[in-house]
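Thread amino acids onto this structure.
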């Protein structure tokens, strides 16, 4: 199964992709997580991406496409769920070309729809584990011990691009460059709009309903 999750920053893409990967055995590929790993390892790509990420702008398409093609090519036959990619129409076109070369296409696009006031609240309360990437929220998805990762006991951190000024830029970037990707997919693929304002379990149930129907076809 090849799935794309679209949605504004903080819509819950990462949270739901982890659940989808666990349930269907597909590989979770998050462009943001891969970029953060590249930065942590101080690679050339990580250094080039840094200033774009810190300001809430998109990293140039050529860098992202090369990075994601490499990651997608490593996915097993079970497929993948893409989180944060594609984020421009050009990226979506390149992804389609890559899949078409192997006679494949995206099977489903889940579009997480969310109110912006909810986004701001989610981002300001997000905490993540710098070691394993687990994501929490100080009110909605609390770790067992405040500030500590349930999985490996690492101290949780706040992402630098979650400060209110950068969040506003990320939302602006989303509207200008990523919203058109939803329209692109609506022309060529099956897109399921999902109300992502609900709690994480409920959003997960809505997503699973759509994906279960695909698996049983
Ligand atoms: P990226 O890491 O992809 O950030 P994003 O798209 O802005 O998305 P987020 O990770 O902030 O949010 P999310 O939707 O995954 O929400 P989450 O599940 O964490 O990208 C970062 C940067 O990298 C970009 O700005 C750009 O510079 C660059 N980049 C990445 N991909 C790129 C690309 N393709 N092209 C160019 N540049 C690229 O949830 C958020 C919080 O809410 C958490 O605390 C969570 O616990 C909580 N939460 C989640 N769901 C719920 C719920 N239903 N109810 C209550 N709380 C919830």
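Threaded sequence (217 positions):
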């Amino acid at each position: 199964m090849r799935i794309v999750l679209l949605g504004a920053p903080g819509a819950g893409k990462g949270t739901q992709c982890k659940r989808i990967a666990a349930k269907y055995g597909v590989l979770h590929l998050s462009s943001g997580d891969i970029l953060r790993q590249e930065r942590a390892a101080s690679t050339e790509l990580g250094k080039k991406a840094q200033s774009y990420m810190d300001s809430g702008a998109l990293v140039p398409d050529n860098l992202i496409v090369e990075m994601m093609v490499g990651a997608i090519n490593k996915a097993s036959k079970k497929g993948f769920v893409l989180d944060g990619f594609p984020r421009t129409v050009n990226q979506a076109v390149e992804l389609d070309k890559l899949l078409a070369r192997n006679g494949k296409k995206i099977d489903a696009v889940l579009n997480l729809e969310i109110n912006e006031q909810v986004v701001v609240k989610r981002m300001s309360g997000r905490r993540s584990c710098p070691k394993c990437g687990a994501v929490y929220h100080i009110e909605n998805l609390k770790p067992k011990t405040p500030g500590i990762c349930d999985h490996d006991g690492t101290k949780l951190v706040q992402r630098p691009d979650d400060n209110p000024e950068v969040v506003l830029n990320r939302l602006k970037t989303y509207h200008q460059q990523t919203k058109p990707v939803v329209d692109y997919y609506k022309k060529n693929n099956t897109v399921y709009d999902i109300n992502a304002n609900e709690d994480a379990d409920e959003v997960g149930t809505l997503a699973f309903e759509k994906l279960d129907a695909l698996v049983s076809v």
